[in-house]
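Lab notebook: predicted structure, single chain.

Context: the supervisor wants predicted structures on file for every construct in the current expression panel, including those that have not yet been purified. This is the next one on the list. No modifications to the sequence; it matches the entry in the shared construct table.
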Amino acid sequence: MLGVAFGLAGSVGGTIGAGILRTPGLVAAQLHTPWLVLLAWLIGGLYALLGAICIAELAASLPRAGGWYVYAEQAFGRRAGWLVGWSDWLAHCIGLAWVATTVGELLADLLPGGPSQAVLAPAIALTTLAGFGGIQWLGVRAGGASQELLSLVKAVAFLGLAAASFLLPATMPLEAMDAESAALPEGTALLIGAVLALQAVVTTFDGWASPVYFAEEFSEPSRDLPRSLIGGVVAVLGLYLLINAALLHVLPMQTLSNSTLPAADAARSLLGIRGGQLITAVALVSLLGLINTVVMAAPRILFGLSRDGLMPGWMAGVNSGGTPVPALLITLASAAALVLLGSFEHLLGMGAFLYVGLPLAGIAAQLWLRRNQPELSRPFLCWGYPITPLLVGAVSLAFLAGALVSDPSDSLLAIALVGAGFAFEKLFSLLATQEHREKPDAST
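Prediction complete. Output recorded below exactly as produced.
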């Protein structure tokens, strides 16, 4: 059984990826002043923290494997549960394929000679998926231990980079920082910049809800899940603030604003040419931890849907280690197919839309259940209810509206993909019904 240590590792491992190595430059390019940059990261972290406080109530009340679909089904019925679970699983597969491909590209760049990157990168990506699939096949204990180890190494790597950055002298005296802050954009320019910066920050915090996918595998879910969700976000927020403070200490604001990979620039300030290799290593550790989280979480969605009769029952089969093997194989095969497809621009646009929509479904379920199922056991109560979920819901709706405006084609494709789930729901319902009818015959 799992505990708080795994929950924290899952939250940290599911959140911190390679994005934190790149996003600080995007935020600085919009806000142009140190204190506003740090404020944007603080606001994004508080938004994630409020979301964790809301979902902690649902996770403690309904400690079942499967993630967001569990709450949608409890509140709105089987069809809504299926659509949320379908969307969630698709988003996981898209993200898993992209991260595995990124690992393949990074490692292919490090290997001299040999096959071209077009051949080598997908081969490494597929091998990486198979390797982590093998770890999960061993069982929950092996998967949990690997997650705790990778998350620990990831946190130590980022903390080490930030701490080492503070050993260098500041790039700019306080007087110069004040003068630079005086050039702060005003009015509409500042508002647009703040919105774009917060979009980037919130995306970098995505993944904090990873522990909910393993809810029933915790030894004391009513206690451990709220601690894991809230503690994980607090840990990530502290680390992100520290990393950004270190980057602001090492890099002039103009350099930070123009950098596509500011962590690499900071590492070069520390170690010269070897700094780029250091950041590649840190990125690989971050991405491997993320892959492990997703490979462990995504099959739990299919497992939960199957066990609840929303998909054929054979997908709910587990091995002696507690791993849902059929669901694991389907997830790995789907991610591998996306890796071989090799075109992620539109897939990631659709995935980003789904990532925001899923927590919004959780918030809607929480509000509905509070009103319509007051008798439901709630070992943990959301702090500040109903203001907290209403605030999180309003911000999530604003982000979805922003995505529709800024990337209408991919957002509409995501909506169409969710809508296609209706057809799949009919198909899987027929299969599940047929399987149920055949069971009595098989037993006679």
